[in-house]
Write a structure and sequence with these properties.
The protein is mainly β. The protein contains no helices and 15 strands. The protein is elongated, with a radius of gyration of 16 Å.
């Protein structure tokens, strides 16, 4: 199946290995990806509108190359690694029950995003708007409150103590 320069609407992609496939100049509207491997997919000028990724493996994707007009997607129970979400407006984005390793969220608007129950090992948050965002039961996040915007951001104890990591203090 060809995925470049195509349009897909209200389709479900299930149990498909899309490694190294190009979505360049394609448009996906109201689509579901379930149990798919999307490693190293070319997202140059890809349009994602109301897309759901569930139980997917997503490695090495640069979402900042997507067409950002009406960009909307969400992730559930997925593995995301070495991917870039920088410079995007991802307000109200769900990233729940995910492993989000080594991903970049630099200059990203994540207002009202949901990272509940996710593992954010080595992911980078810098100059990111995290207002009203939920990190309930999330772990391994490293967020510098001095370099990100936090207002009414929701955290769980004891993980919230990691916000003090930048101060090189000792807690007992």
């Amino acid at each position: 199946m060809e995925y470049q320069n195509e349009e897909f609407e209200a389709e479900t992609f299930k149990d498909i290995n899309l490694t190294d496939v190009s979505f360049k100049n394609s448009r996906f509207i109201d689509c579901d990806f379930e149990n798919c491997n999307l490693s190293n997919v070319d997202l140059d000028n890809t349009k994602f509108q109301d897309i759901r990724f569930k139980n997917c493996k997503i490695m090495g994707l640069d979402f900042s190359k997507c067409n950002d007009f009406i960009l909307a997607f969400g992730f559930e129970d997925s593995f995301l690694s070495l991917s870039v979400f920088s410079d995007l407006n991802l307000e109200n984005t769900d990233l729940t029950n995910c492993q989000i390793y080594d991903c970049d969220f630099v200059n990203t608007n994540l207002t009202r995003a949901n990272f509940e129950n996710s593992d954010l090992k080595n992911s980078l948050f810098r100059n990111t708007n995290l207002s009203f965002t939920s990190f309930r039961n999330a772990k391994n996040y490293d967020i510098d409150p001095n370099n990100n915007f936090l207002k009414k951001t929701k955290f769980s104890i004891p993980e919230v103590i990691s916000l003090l990591n930048i101060y090189d203090i000792e807690l007992e």
